[in-house]
Design brief:
Blueprint: E1 3-7, H1 16-29, E2 34-38, H2 44-48, H3 65-68, E3 70-71, E4 77-80, H4 86-93, H5 98-108, E5 116-120, H6 127-134, E6 138-144, H7 153-165, E7 172-181, H8 186-199, E8 203-209, H9 212-216, H10 224-227, H11 232-246
Parallel strand pairs: 1-5, 1-6, 2-4, 2-5, 6-7, 7-8
Antiparallel strand pairs: 3-4
Bound molecules: adenosine-5'-diphosphate (ADP) and magnesium ion (MG).
């Protein structure tokens, strides 16, 4: 049974996809067979790894999931691509638990043979995010170091708590990650202090700095560790990867 981590925050632009792609790449480099599932209809994780969204969403079509999984340029990193097809997005958004259960069954069957599975969620707390939460053991929530960082989090945390109480309560709070950290800004330190004060130990010690390499890498279809191996962004995601592995 792989370790399944979903990367969620209802806000857009906080670094979910960047974290999903780069943490997945670092885990693969660390020797873990890793699957990245793109559940966001915007398919940024798919294009960020240089792949095309597919015509039919693998979770909606009847195909066995392992037939839909693609290899990537990074050894040990595999991708379940997303789809922008409106009908499939609608079907997923109306999910009554079927797709979440299908995903979970697939992951639990062990057929996949992955050590770690990361799920990149859309920026909402709609059904898709709930589907991802029900299929996961841990949720990793990126928080951007900006003024409204904590706004709306109560709602997100409430949804997470409800999923934790449902089913067999296998979902845990994996951790909170501070992203786009800029030490030259007073605001960054204020947000960091507030988040650490409020959430305590579940906040990762590693912070992800604002680094242009992280923004540029997806346009080359590569994770930052391939695009700019010596960048600060790479260093931060390697450090995060070690922390995630330690918390297992
Ligand atoms: P989300 O998936 O939460 O919507 P993204 O990961 O797509 O957020 O990030 C939003 C934007 O910020 C993207 O253009 C991305 O390239 C950029 N970005 C993310 N993390 C960083 C970073 N650490 N440094 C600089 N730019 C970043
Ligand atoms: Mg995204």
């Amino acid at each position: 049974m792989p370790r399944v981590i979903c990367i969620a925050n209802q806000k857009g632009g906080v670094g979910k996809t960047t974290t999903a792609v780069n943490l997945a790449a670092c885990l693969a480099k660390a020797g873990m067979q890793t699957l990245l599932i793109d559940l966001d209809p915007q398919c940024n994780a798919t294009s960020g790894l240089g792949k095309q969204p597919v015509g039919q969403h693998p979770l909606v079509g009847g195909v066995p999931l392992h037939h839909a999984v693609l290899e990537t340029e990074v050894a040990g990193l595999f991708l379940l691509p997303g789809s922008r097809r409106f009908r499939d997005v609608e079907a997923l958004a109306r999910d009554d638990g079927t797709y979440g259960a299908r995903l979970r069954d697939h992951l639990e069957s062990g057929a996949a043979g992955f050590d770690t599975v990361l799920i990149d969620c859309p920026p909402s707390i709609g059904r898709l995010t709930r589907t991802a939460l029900t299929a996961s053991q841990e949720v990793l929530m990126p928080i951007q170091c900006e003024y409204f960082a904590m706004e709306g989090l109560a709602q997100m945390i409430e949804v997470i708590r409800r999923v934790m109480e449902e089913r067999d309560r296998r979902l845990q709070f994996g951790g909170i990650l501070l992203t786009m950290h800029d030490p030259s800004l007073e605001l960054t330190w204020e947000v960091e202090a507030e988040v650490r004060d409020f959430f305590g130990e579940i906040v990762y010690a590693t912070v992800i700095p604002r680094d242009v390499a992280c923004g540029e890498a997806p346009s080359h279809g590569k994770p930052v560790i391939e695009y700019a191996p010596r960048s600060r962004g790479t260093r931060a995601y390697v450090e995060l990867c070690m922390e995630v592995l330690e918390r297992d």
